[in-house]
Design goal:
With 295 residues, the chain is an alpha/beta fold. The chain is built from 13 helices and 7 strands.
Amino acid sequence: MTDNNKTPMGKRIAAIIGIVALLSTYVILFIMSLVGAPMDYFMGAVVATVAIPIFTWICIWAISSITGRHTIASLDPLTSDKEHDSRGNIVPKGKIDTVVFDIGNVLTDFAYMDFIEKRVQNKEMAKRVADASVHSKDWNELDRGVLPVEEIIDRFKKNDPEIADEIDKTFVDFKDIVTKREKAIPWIKALQAAGYKVLYLSNFSEIILEACADAMAFIEETDGGILSYRDKVIKPDHAIYNLLAERYNLVPEKTVFIDDTKVNIDSAKELGWNGIVYKDYAGVKKELEALGVIY
């Protein structure tokens, strides 16, 4: 059985030659200092032995920071036992190489009932507002990003004309309809540190993205993704999954999608993706481990 992590013979021979040459230099300079040559020669060699590797390391680190490529200077020592590709990127074990997240109720809380109740201050009225808006098919149009927001809110009011004023009061803005989950960024970073590509795929509107910027800060930590309003297509339409796959060169059987809605997971599976219905973090972690996703 071949050990893929074993250092190639050529590199091992070169390392041995380098060590012998370095030690020989020390011995020669030390002998010279004893027979009359300045001791500074020997001390200079000692200082250079320390300074040159440090300077070289700093240069490699600077290059990796500018180019974004992983090098020996950017590798986390804690990953030294993992397999790396030619650029120093960790190669994940198992068949999965990409984890795709939904956003609402996975990486954030879609706290629409709390949001509505704070605006109308009446649970019964809040339920009617939710039924006329978030629970209606018109909410999908908000995520699709084709119609003006004002037109969509007018549709909400037509769904229950008696509470038009309450709907206007509720959707004067969308601040805090989506709230932050503290686990989101650590989860993303842990997966990336283990070598996985992390993407997002969500039905999401521009107005909520702008109103809930703090809750959506995790987006900057991912490797990319799709928000439905930008491409005018929503889940569970196969088109949005295919678009993500094409844009990021995904291999279906190497991709796992995490969403809190079963129909969205079913659609992903129809395309050959792996899928997990999100109920809680612990349950998802266990299912990821069953797929070989370890982080």
